[in-house]
Sequence to fold (364 residues):
Amino acid sequence: MTKKRPGGNRKTRGGRVTPKGSGGRSSLARSSTAILDRVSDGVRGRPGPGQLPPGIPARTGITSRRIGDPIEPGLVSAQREVPASIDRPSYADRPDGSPPRYKGSNVRKPDEVQRMRVACAMAAQLLIEIGEQIQPGVTTEQLDEFAHQRCIQMEAYPSPLNYKGFPKATCTSVNEVIYHGIPDSRPLQDGDVVNVDVTVYVDGVHGDTDAMFAVGDIDSDSLRLCRVAREAMYAGIEAVRPGVPINVIGKAIQSLAHRNGIGVVEEFIGHGIGTAFHTSLQIPHYFVPSATTTIEEGMTFTIEPMLTLGSPRLHLWNDGWTAATNDGSRSAQYEHTVLVTSGGAEILTRTSDGRCAADAFPVD
Fold:
């Protein structure tokens, strides 16, 4: 789960309304810094519109079309409770869900890494179990209820719940929805693709992962999109090395996506993670020449590129969370939490026997 807008007014979340028409959208300003917590020296200085940095191939073979009917939001149930006996992050009980500003190190202590291994393995197991529930007719609300109850059984807190007011335990993003979709009453349909994003908090640390899932039989363009999104995540992970700048991750992702005619969303980025859900470390998924923060051994962060078949330009629904493509084309995303080691990156969001949803449910 990426960062949201810094402060500002929050929309009332008693329900959702359709994003169709001017009354159902919140427009993004040309600069994504208007709504997102991505204002830092690490993500400024990108090329102007239509310009590509040296070394990034131009995007060719673009497929820009709506597949299936537009996603219409359903009803959102009341926020569920978590037993008081379960340890929770500080924002969980705050009325607005605001987390404290993170002022710690981006390098994890050894004991924090060990605790993160447990949390990340739990998140990986949970996502696999959710994937097993996905089929036509199931609602994202039912998937979220399953995830919520499994977190309680595991004695873990579902990190998205009440984070800056988010009302559910998971994010579920269907078809043209890029990110932060709120689980609701809409049944999944044959031919849909859905991203499920889970994060768990246990023993004082978070573990964050997501994956795409095919609902029944899906079309060839959606298959290609999901395949490239998965490959792009792993390309970003492969680029991680101590001593190199953060922007090597985005360069690897954007280059692979463009070679395959796929767009890269710039408004949402990966983030540092550990004792805080989001630390100050920011991971762009596109190449930013000025993003020169040096990758250090012991850092933990997410790599979670969001890719699109058509234009990556987007808008927010008026629930204040759901981001969708402007042209209605489909989006796909995969995410792992990684630990920087002396030799590269170790994927933490795998089960104790090495499994993860991205590999257990390949959409290719």
The first helix runs from residue 110 to 131.
